[in-house]
Every structure is written in C-alpha cells, then in structure tokens.
Amino acid sequence: MQTSQGIIFNSQLIQKADHQLGMNFHYRKVNYQYENAPNEAFMVGNIKWYKAFFHQGLTMNLDYGLGSGVEPQREFQYVKVADGMGIYKWTDYNADGIEQLDEFEIAEFIDQANYIRVYTNTIEYLKTNKNEFNFSMRIRPQQIFQSKNKFVARWSFQQVISATNSLRKEDETLEWNPFTNSDLILGKTRNIRSMIYFNQGANYKWLATYTFNQQANQTYVYTGAEAREMQTNTLLVKYNIKPSFSIQNEFEMGKVKNHSDVFASRRFELENFKLHPKLTYQYGKSFSASVFYAYQNKVNTIGIEELNQSDLGTEIQWNEISKMSLLGSFSFVKNAFVGNGDSVVGNQMMEGLRAGNNMVWQLQVQRQINSFLQLNISYDGRKTEANKAIHTGSVQLQARF
User: Fold this and answer.
1) Which pTM was predicted?
2) Sign of CA dihedral 71, 72, 77, 81
3) Taking the chain, what is the end-to-end CA distance rounded to the nearest angstrom?
4) pLDDT tens, 99-143?
5) Which of 41, 149, 330, 361 is most buried, by CB atoms within 10 Å?
6) Which residues are registered as beta bridge partners of 80?
C-alpha cells in the first residue's frame, strides 16, 4: 500500500510575438506503508524560452528540462529476421562460427541487414535523474545593423547546442548541469553545430558554407559503457557556371574516437581528410545529372590501419510532379587499405566495402498510381574483387486511406 501527494504548476509567463516564456513543474512524493521501503520523491520540469532581438536579426530558442524517476536495467540480444528486414549485420571476425556481441554492427547495405536488437528488462530497477538542454541561435547582421550594404547582407550565422543525460540517482539530489561528466552517467548525447553561410540562397553566382560539428554519445548496458566522439570541419563551395550547370567542392577534416569498456576491438581513434568535387547539370525542375569524385584518407592513430579511398561516380534524378520519380547512381570505389580488413575498425574505415576495387549501384523508382496507391521499386547492387556481384531488389505497394 502507498500514498502520494503532488503539486502541478503550468504557466505561460510571457506571450508576445518576439518574446515567449513558459514553464511547467510536477512534484510527487510517495509514502510506502510497509517495512524497509523508504519514501521517494519524483520531479519533472520544463522551461521554454524564445526571444528576438534587433529587428529579428538575432533570435534565440531555449528548451531545458529535468526530472527524476526509475528505469529498468536492460539487457539485449541480436535476433535474426528475414533477409533485408533488419538493421544490424553479423561478421564472424574470429571465424569461430559463434555470434558474439562485438561482432554486430549497423549494416551498410540492405542485403546484410538480417538482425535486430531486442532489449529485455531485468528485475532490477535503477533510480535515475534526467536532464535535457536544447539551444539554437540565428544571426543576420544585415537586420541587426539595419544595413543596406550588399556585402553585409550576404552573411548569416547559426548555432545549435543540445545535450541529454541519464544518471544514477543518489539521495534526493537532482542533476541540473546538462553538460555534466559525472561518473554516475548511464547514457548521454552531446551535439554542437556551428554554421557560417555566405551567399545563402539560389540568387547568387557562388556560395560557401562552413560547418563545425561535434558529437558525443555514451550508452551503458550490462556489458559496460560504450562511447563515441566525433568532430568534423567542413567547407562547401559552390559556383553556378550557368543556370543549368554548377560545380561544387567539399573539404572535410574530422576525428572519430570509439571506446568500449569490454571489447578491445571497438577501441580506435580515426583522423580523416576528404576532398569531394562534383559537377551537376540541372534541366528545369524535373531532371538533374551529376558526376563526382571523392578522395578520402583515414588513419587509425592508435593502430596500424590506414585507408586511401578514391570514389568516382555519377547520379541521375528525374521527377514528374505528383506522378513519378527515378533516382539512379553508380560508384567505382578503390580502397588502398593497410591493416586487417576483417576487423571492426577495418569495416568502419571502408564503410562495409572491401580492399581493392569495388562497384556500387542503385536504382529507385516511385510511381503514384492514383490518389491512394503508391508503387515503390528498389534495386541495389555491389561487387568486390573477391566476390560475385550481389543483387537486391524489392517491390512495395502502399495504400493510404
């Protein structure tokens, strides 16, 4: 038997076109009426804030929430499903014929996606604290300074920061800090994204976009903690040669760090560089075709693995509004790889392909038969030097009522 008491508070404190502030709060205390059962208190709260400054030239959005509760300690296993109907693939890295947890990864190709991850809750429940933080900001200098200068009008800036945490709860304390690195963390995500736009939009002859992206994820299950950190710096430059022709080039430098408490095979640190030029022909709004080349260099700084990858390909897209669309692509990928390709880090670096020459192609057709029937046809294929071509196709008919 138990009794509980609670308080609920909801309010829209500010409601204006350029300024909004709202909050809600729920507190509940539970009293258990039997021996050795301590009383518990739970809380959930949220604050949302929006503000526009300087003639809408600077806008900010903030969403912050925290709470406490309980959640089951989870175990999981991988279960085989019909071919192509799963999410994960199994690679027998140690050639022992036994499915082991560190041999499952997200499948890069649909013919490999034969497993799903199934979670089961144990009888053990953990008291937890949770918090979530989301912030976005957009800056338009022209509106801030009310400038008529055309050069100032070409710039805009955007910032996005988000964080979520789940932590083991001790005593009655709450975790207010959304960027905590506490030892009590059960799971967390971090994302920082900064973008600088120059000549944003289709009215300019050329444009450029710089993006800084930093992500961190950590999960904890019965096998221990797994963490992944990623950081990229990307510069995209595009030039419209003519209304129907454009050329662009993408430069990217990045780092990836993967850590596992239990599985040594999942510990690696990659540094990569990417160069990706692309030429596109656009005919009206219905047809486009492009050819591209991509060069990547990846190095595992705590191992011997290194990859030099060249990718030459083409893409074709055709759309008939409200009736039919077609998308086709072909890539020839050459992987010059040093190290063990049959490893977790090798698979990560080559993105599911193999050392040597690879070919990958795809065709997707979507047809709107009538107002409620839609036909989808998909065909994928790939070939490596050592293996025969693999063909995968599917036909799907969707009815919407």
Assistant:
1) 0.86
2) negative
3) 48
4) 888 888 888 888 888 899 888 777 777 788 899 999 999 999 999
5) 361
6) 115
